[in-house]
Design goal:
Low-confidence stretches: none
Number of strands: 29
Shape: flat
Mean pLDDT: 88
Number of domains: 5
Length: about 575
């Protein structure tokens, strides 16, 4: 509550790709009057020697028109509003109204354009005034020509994917101590007739709009029969865009190949496909091949394919630790992606295997979590009427469309060139069903997965479906409400909380505390709006104790070891002191 009465500060930052070169100074070979009529603005759009362009960073900072903005270079009081549409989680795509990846975050920041002398952003501002930066020699006053935002975004139009941040704190805070939410630029509109500019920032997952594998453009140079083992591309040097060896798809046939220049030596009818005749001009599409590995390892390969944009956002060690804790030994099969598929689609398919991937802007990381209970020692963050929930804001709903009584998981792909979301293209079906359905109404949830390869994996399918069924066998409760700003750090997307409120009551009317997961969190300067879903996973979970440090029997174990470890004993007549032994 110590923040009450303090004046909030909100900042928008945008990193412009600002060239580090100096116009006309080696290695920049631009020549005024020859390569251009005016010196550049250190942007790619205005560059006159792209061979030697070198992108650095110039950070624009916008704050509200108020006292107390941080005293750092390049702060412009042009911000008029910031609105956030929070991301939303959707475990395994259970919610039919959302994509398997849920909803990604969007931030809209509104700015008011203004006049400015351009001394901070334009490296050659003084020369434009004197005319030395113009081939005509006739200078002008930047403050009298145009407005800052309009001309800045005209100079830097290639903003898609540019880093952007929302920074929140209080007057007097050092900017390095404020809470920072990291995004990327998505859209820019304006300025309109009133000089209003709207900047849209998006979740890092929106960088996953590209494809795995990349689209191929090579085509057959001639007709080939079903028995030929060689072909040449129709255009010279087309082969340079293919690996030296691998798999390609031609029509509905997959062939393996080795390449020498534009000549391909091929082995026909691979990966369950059938050799066929093909015509000159048919597309030769390179296939993506994912070998057996863990779910997070496959996701990392897909996201990083063909780009470095995700390198800083994937905490590989944390992903692997989460996987080894709850999915040790559960791997995908050998998977062939025979046509370009959006990365977001593939990550969504992996999420259907009982896990979640989401962007947490304050941590600047993509989070990965498996459908599992808390670890020993972990606790739920308490939310209750007395210490956090704003009176009159609590609402409760029963999410009937999330209840599951049966799960059908189709796996073992028949054909990599056919639809992998159709039941007819799978050889196996694993079913998990409730032994007793007290609701008396079936609620079947179907999963179609390519990720266990052509062989399928009944064991992995059983683990995934049984855990999902344990989570959603009862209609989840959904609680929404508003919290004080003090809860902001703890109530982030994906946080696990224990909600205790008058709206949650037992059969005798007593208030109960419900374990829940935050699936939506929206922040303002002084409030947190959230929505959370029941997080109950019935069943017994335990860990094998460390053979080097575990007690010899249950009686000598500490309370912590008893809570975390697995002990076996006589099932018919157990003696809790002597009969239980650790394994």
């Amino acid at each position: 509550m110590g923040d009450l009465g303090r004046k909030p500060v909100t900042l928008l930052q945008i990193d412009l790709p600002y060239c580090t070169r100096t116009y006309g100074t080696a290695p920049c070979a631009a020549v005024l009057g020859t390569t251009g009529a005016a010196k550049c603005f250190n942007s790619l759009k205005t560059c006159q020697d792209r061979t030697n362009y070198e992108a650095g960073t110039k950070t624009l900072t916008f704050g509200y028109n108020q006292d107390g903005n941080p005293d750092i270079p390049g702060v412009f009081p042009a911000l008029t509003s910031v609105g956030t549409r929070s991301g939303e989680l959707n475990l395994s795509g259970v919610d039919p109204d959302a994509s398997p990846l849920g909803v990604t975050t969007r931030v809209k920041a509104v700015l008011q354009d203004f006049t400015n002398n351009d001394t901070w952003l334009d490296k050659y501002q003084s020369e434009r005034v004197t005319g030395a930066a113009l081939a005509s020699g006739i200078g002008y006053s930047p403050i009298e020509r145009g407005h800052f935002l309009a001309r800045t975004f005209a100079r830097f139009p290639y903003y898609d994917g540019t880093p952007g941040r929302i920074i929140r704190g209080y007057v007097g805070d050092d900017i390095g101590d404020m809470e920072t939410e990291n995004y990327v630029m998505a859209e820019l509109s304006g300025p309109n007739a009133g000089g209003v500019v709207t900047v849209t920032l998006k979740d890092v997952f929106d960088l996953a709009e590209d494809y795995y594998p990349a689209v191929s453009t090579g085509k057959l140079g001639d007709d080939i029969t079903a028995t030929e083992t060689e072909f040449t591309f129709s255009l010279a040097d087309a082969g340079d865009n293919y690996a030296a060896a691998g798999l390609v798809r031609i029509g509905n046939e997959i062939v393996s190949y080795t390449r020498a220049g534009d000549a391909m030596t091929i082995v026909r009818g691979q990966e369950g496909s059938t050799a066929a005749t093909h015509s000159a001009g048919d597309l030769v599409q390179e296939c993506g091949v994912l070998l057996p590995q863990s779910i997070p390892e496959a996701a990392e390969i897909i996201l990083k394919y063909g780009t470095t944009a995700f390198d800083a956002f994937i905490p590989t060690a944390d992903w692997i630790d989460e996987n080894n804790t709850w999915y040790a030994g559960l791997n995908i099969g050998r998977v062939i992606i025979s046509k370009p598929v959006k990365k977001k689609t593939l990550i969504g398919e992996l999420s259907a295997l009982g896990c979640m991937f989401w962007w947490l802007p304050t941590d600047q990381e993509i989070k990965f979590r498996i459908n599992a209970p808390l670890l020993p020692g972990q606790t739920y963050y308490p939310i209750n009427d007395e210490s956090g929930l704003i009176e009159g804001t609590v609402d409760i709903d029963n999410a009937e469309d999330l209840r599951i009584s049966d799960i059908w998981l189709y796996h073992a792909v028949r054909s990599w060139t056919s639809d992998t979301t159709a039941s007819s293209n799978f050889n196996r079906l694993s079913v998990a069903t409730l032994s007793v359905n007290d609701y008396n109404v079936d609620a079947t949830f179907e999963i179609y997965t390519r990720w266990f390869g052509r062989e399928g994996n009944d064991g992995a399918a059983s683990i995934i479906t049984e855990r999902l069924l344990a989570r959603y066998k009862d209609t989840p409760k959904v609680i929404s409400g508003t919290l004080d700003v003090k809860d902001r750090a703890a109530v982030s997307l994906g946080a696990r909380v224990r909600v205790e409120t008058y709206a949650l009551q037992d059969v005798d009317g007593a208030t109960i505390a419900e374990p829940m997961q935050v699936n939506y969190a929206e922040y303002t300067e002084d409030r947190v709006k959230f929505r959370a879903e029941t997080y109950r996973i019935d069943g017994q979970f335990a860990f094998w104790l460390d053979s080097a440090t575990a007690p010899a029997d249950y009686a000598s174990a500490t309370d912590a070891q008893r809570a975390a470890g697995a002990f076996w004993g006589d099932a018919d007549n157990p003696d809790p002191v002597t009969d239980y032994v650790w394994f």
